[in-house]
């Protein structure tokens, strides 16, 4: 079983709409959770950390469900500039800083 | 405040040659990580280093690959006797002591002919 699993999509989203997707992780001892954004052929950029209580940053809301081992990301009022691949990232072991990446959810915002 | 720097951005090598990829972490960051992204694949962890120490190299191929982070200068990822399957984007990330967030450099795209 993969450490982090994501449905790659693509998710075609009309401009202004809301899109949500999630990922699952296999290691229940995972400590830290993140969403990164990766534009085509560029480096991943940290979008937001994900906390147990859930957190919001502008139009972006992240949720963590430890019992079911999944993380979600919701984007409201989608902009054309939101088109990118969103990577679900998990820090696997306490004391070991290795990050495990999902393959990403590809989002295409359509005018 | 300069981010993570990597060079070269693009590197072309013929089979059997050596590739050296360099990474300078963000100012104030003492932890460096190398990841590889194959075409159409997710990022895979390779190695985690602190100054003069390899902390975790569980993702490094057993042969031909090595990494270092000397006391002075950038971290180096070295690939000896490259093969076509080594063609990929190699990303370096850095973090502060005790901080979980990692910040990525622009990557080096290695092409093996």
Give a written overview of the molecule:
The complex is a heterodimer of chains A (111) and B (113). With 111 residues, chain A is an all-beta fold. In chain A, strands 2, 4, 5, 9, 10 and 11 form a six-stranded mixed β-sheet that branches. A five-stranded antiparallel β-sheet of chain A has the order 1-3-8-7-6, with no helix packed on it. Chain A contains no helices and eleven strands. With 113 residues, chain B is mainly beta. Chain B is built from no helices and eleven strands. In chain B, the strands form two sheets. In chain B, strands 2, 4, 5, 6, 9, 10 and 11 form a seven-stranded mixed β-sheet that branches. The mean pLDDT of chain B is 94. Chain A binds chain B through residues 4, 31-32, 34, 41-46, 49, 87, 91, 96-104, and chain B through 31, 33, 35, 41-45, 48, 55-56, 58-59, 89, 91, 93, 95, 100-107, 109.
What's the rounded overall pLDDT mean of chain B?
A: 94
Q: Secondary-structure element order of chain A, as H and E?
A: EEEEEEEEEEE
Catalogue the unreliable spans of chain B. none
Strands of chain A, count: 11
Unreliable stretches of chain A, pLDDT < 50, 5 or more residues? Answer: none
- Number of E strands of chain B: 11
Beginning-to-end CA distance, first to last residue of chain B: 37 Å
Q: Estimate the helix proportion of chain A, in percent.
A: under 10%
Describe the sheet with the most strands of chain A: 6 strands, mixed
Strand content of chain B: over 45%
Tally of separate helices of chain B: 0
Shape by Cα distribution of chain A = globular
């Amino acid at each position: 079983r993969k450490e982090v699993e994501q449905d790659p999509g693509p998710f075609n989203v009309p401009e202004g709409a809301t899109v949500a997707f999630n990922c699952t992780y296999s290691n229940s001892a995972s400590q830290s959770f993140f969403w990164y954004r990766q534009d085509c052929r560029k480096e991943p950029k940290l979008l937001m950390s994900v906390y147990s209580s859930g957190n919001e940053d502008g139009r972006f809301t992240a949720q963590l469900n430890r019992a079911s081992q999944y993380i979600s990301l919701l984007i409201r009022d989608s902009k054309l500039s939101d088109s990118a691949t969103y990577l679900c990232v998990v820090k696997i072991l306490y004391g070991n800083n290795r990050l495990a990446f999902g393959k990403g959810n590809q989002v295409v915002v359509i005018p | 405040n300069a981010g993570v720097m990597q060079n070269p951005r693009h590197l072309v090598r013929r089979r059997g040659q050596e590739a050296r990829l360099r990474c300078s972490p963000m100012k104030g960051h003492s932890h460096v990580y190398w990841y590889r992204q194959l075409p159409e694949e997710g990022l895979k962890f390779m190695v985690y280093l602190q100054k003069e120490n390899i902390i975790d190299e569980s993702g490094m191929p057993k042969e031909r690959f090595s990494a270092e982070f000397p006391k002075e200068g950038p971290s180096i990822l070295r690939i000896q006797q490259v093969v076509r399957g080594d063609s990929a984007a190699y990303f370096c990330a850095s973090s502060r002591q005790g901080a979980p967030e990692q910040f990525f450099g622009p990557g080096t795209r290695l092409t093996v002919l």
